[in-house]
Design a protein that fits this description.
Elements: H1 2-11, E1 17-20, H2 26-30, E2 43-46, H3 52-57, E3 65-68, H4 73-86, E4 91-95, H5 99-107, E5 111-113, H6 115-127
Parallel strand pairs: 1-2, 3-4, 4-5
């Protein structure tokens, strides 16, 4: 998910820095490209976003937007709060799988995206015979 977002933001002309604890994750950014991620203008830093030094190395001090989309809700929520409160990043978006937690954190001021809630809504619409967009088959 993170690599897809990073690629689309880079194509739109944004400066994009990716931070991942897995050094092999850059392969996802390079996949399908005719040039490397860095040659296209992207930045890649190896480290965990729970470490302030890694966030600084990835350029959080200059960020105007930040996406937390690791595999874990708890990690994403902690990282998002660090980005928002410590580094005053203007737009912080956090992926949260648990719909209840996503709602609560949204009420606390974090911009949350909950793929689980989106899937629930799409499934409910499909059961009702409403097709909200192409790609949902009946």
């Amino acid at each position: 998910m993170g690599s897809a977002i990073a690629k689309s933001m880079l194509v739109e002309g944004h400066e994009v820095s990716v931070l991942d604890e897995n050094p092999e994750a850059i392969a996802l950014l390079n996949r399908g490209q005719d040039r490397s991620w860095e040659d296209l203008g992207g930045s890649f830093t190896v480290g965990t976003a729970l470490e302030i030094d890694a966030l600084l190395a990835a350029g959080i001090g200059q960020a105007d937007a930040f996406v937390a989309s690791t595999d874990g809700d708890n990690t994403n929520l902690v990282i998002a709060q660090i980005a928002k409160r410590r580094f005053n990043v203007e737009r912080v978006v956090v992926r949260v799988l648990d719909p209840g937690r996503a709602r609560w954190y949204a009420e606390q001021g974090l911009q949350t995206v909950c793929p689980t809630q989106t899937a629930i809504e799409l499934l409910e619409a499909a059961v009702r015979g409403q097709v909200p967009f192409e790609g949902v088959s009946g």
